[in-house]
């Protein structure tokens, strides 16, 4: 892919907006927004720190049962890269005040007719 198709400013701005909207919804446990920002398809995947979720229904069920307290976190080393006009990868590390472990998160975003959606996500936690 030619470099002029990577990180086009307008596309990068769109994905940044979607990514930080997701982050706000995540720490506030805004389930409708979290659901909106995932692709509503059986092929959507979310690998979490302790779960492997295949399909939007499994992801929705996880969101409904997840604790809604202690979700605040600080992001560091966030990198969002866009490829063309309809695909992006976002990665970040996160930290929680009450925990010394480092969290890592990666998302594959695709621009669909309904807007930018996460089609695959991976969350993991490692020791410092």
UniProtKB/TrEMBL annotation:
Record protein name field: Oxalurate catabolism protein HpxZ
Superkingdom assignment: Bacteria
Organism from which the protein derives: Yersinia hibernica
InterPro entries reported for this sequence: AtzH-like (IPR024507), NTF2-like_dom_sf (IPR032710)
NCBIfam families cross-referenced by the UniProt entry: HpxZ
Any Pfam family: AtzH-like
Gene3D superfamilies: 3.10.450.50
């Amino acid at each position: 892919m030619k470099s002029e198709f990577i990180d086009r400013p307008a596309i990068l701005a769109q994905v940044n907006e979607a990514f930080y909207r997701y982050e706000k919804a995540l720490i506030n446990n805004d389930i409708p927004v979290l659901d909106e920002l995932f692709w509503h398809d059986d092929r959507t995947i979310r690998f979490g720190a302790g779960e492997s979720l295949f399909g939007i229904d499994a992801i929705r069920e996880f969101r409904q049962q997840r604790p809604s307290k202690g979700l605040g976190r600080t992001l560091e080393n966030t990198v969002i890269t866009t490829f063309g006009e309809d695909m992006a990868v976002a990665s970040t590390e996160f930290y929680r005040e009450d925990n010394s472990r480092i969290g890592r998160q990666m998302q594959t975003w695709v621009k669909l007719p309904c807007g930018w959606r996460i089609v695959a996500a991976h969350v993991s936690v490692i020791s410092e």
